[in-house]
Amino acid sequence: MLAGLVTGQRRFELVEVPEPEAGPSLAVVQVTKCGICGTDLHGFLGSDPYNPAICGHEWVGHVSAVGAGVTRVSEGDRVVLAAPPSCGQCAECLAGRPAYCPIAFLGMVGRDPLAPKHGGFAKAIAVDAARLVHVHAPISDDQAAVVEPAVVALHAVDRMLPRDGETVVVQGCGPIGLLTLQCAIARGASHVVAIEPAANRRELALQLGAAEAIHPSEAAERFRRQGADLVYECAGVPATIQQAVDLARRGGRVDIVGLASGAATISPSTWLIKEITVTAAIGHLHHEVSDVIDLIADGLVRTEPLHDRTVGLAELPDVIAEMADDPSSAIKVLVDPTL
């Protein structure tokens, strides 16, 4: 069986891997769709080894086999991959902080003992059954393949919720930014300003509910007199960390969502004078996956406008290189390993 993997800097290959088998605590899933994540592109461009277990982690499929001890899923179930549930036994769980369970975090980043040897850019994958969540709502496979980035956005918004009447900024309208915009509106944001350099993405932000969509060059003037109440920083660029604080009002809030590579230069005096509250969000929690499936099913989070095209495994190396070199060339490309 072939699996798509980042095998080095700017090297993406289809590698022969063993057919997955069910084992104790493991289920085999036949992958129907898998999204290309920005993390996959960072891995392709970066010089550090990219964890093969997370190379293609935005997938949906059907369970084809279960191992001994697996009770939460059965053959034929349609499922998506989620972060593992908290273990309930570690120091963080016992202290009432299950969101910071290190066992769950290791599973989410593919560093646990049950981590697969490849991700969802393959026809099938064997994974820890505890990580699987039923797609219980009537949504399509194309929609379900965007559940993982959508739940990352929901987790970020739930970390710092908008308040009634606030002006909310979403900085960066890639997949995570456009999903964060929608989750913020679903959680009560009434006036969202999208900041994005690409005109097509600004137009899409308006279609998805933004009240305003402006170019970054206009942002300083737009918020010169009255800063934003809450800024979701989704661009994932070192320079935009400080820019997010610059756009916020005194006493405002900034939620760092985008993953910036490298160090960011900040102006501590601005943070201090403004008494900015800053939080950060990474990944998601297991129970949030069902919440975002419901939001998609109810039409409160729309994934279809983000979907540019679907490709097969054979096209994947070229598509990864294209998207890495020109991130604006697509918002969300899905892979159908059966093509």
General shape: globular
- Terminus-to-terminus distance: 14 Å
Number of strands: 15
Average residue-wise pLDDT: 97
Count of the domains: 2
Q: Given the structure, what is the number of helices?
A: 12
Oligomeric assembly = single chain
Radius of gyration: 20 Å
What name does CATH use for the topology of the largest domain?
Answer: Quinone Oxidoreductase, Chain A, domain 1
Class based on secondary structure composition and strand pairing: alpha/beta
In percent terms, what proportion of residues is strand? 25-35%
Low-confidence stretches: none
Query: Which CATH class of the largest domain applies here?
Result: Alpha Beta
In short:
The chain is of the alpha/beta class.
Describe the structure.
- The protein folds into two domains: 2-146 and 303-335, Medium-chain alcohol dehydrogenases, catalytic domain (Quinone Oxidoreductase, Chain A, domain 1, Alpha-Beta Complex), CATH 3.90.180; 153-280, NAD(P)-binding Rossmann-like Domain (Rossmann fold).
- Helix 7 (199-207) links the parallel strand 9 (191-195) and strand 10 (212-214).
- With 339 residues, the chain is an alpha/beta fold.
- The mean pLDDT is 97.
- The two termini are 14 Å apart.
- It has twelve helices and 15 strands.
- The chain has helices spanning 38-45, 91-94, 102-108, 141-144, 147-159, 175-186, 199-207, 216-222, 238-247, 268-274, 288-297, 316-325; strands spanning 2-8, 11-16, 26-35, 58-66, 78-81, 124-128, 132-134, 167-171, 191-195, 212-214, 228-233, 248-256, 277-280, 307-311, 332-335.
- The strands form three sheets. Strands 3, 4, 5, 6, 7, 14 and 15 form a seven-stranded mixed beta sheet that branches. Strands 10-9-8-11-12-13 form a six-stranded parallel beta sheet, with helices on both faces.
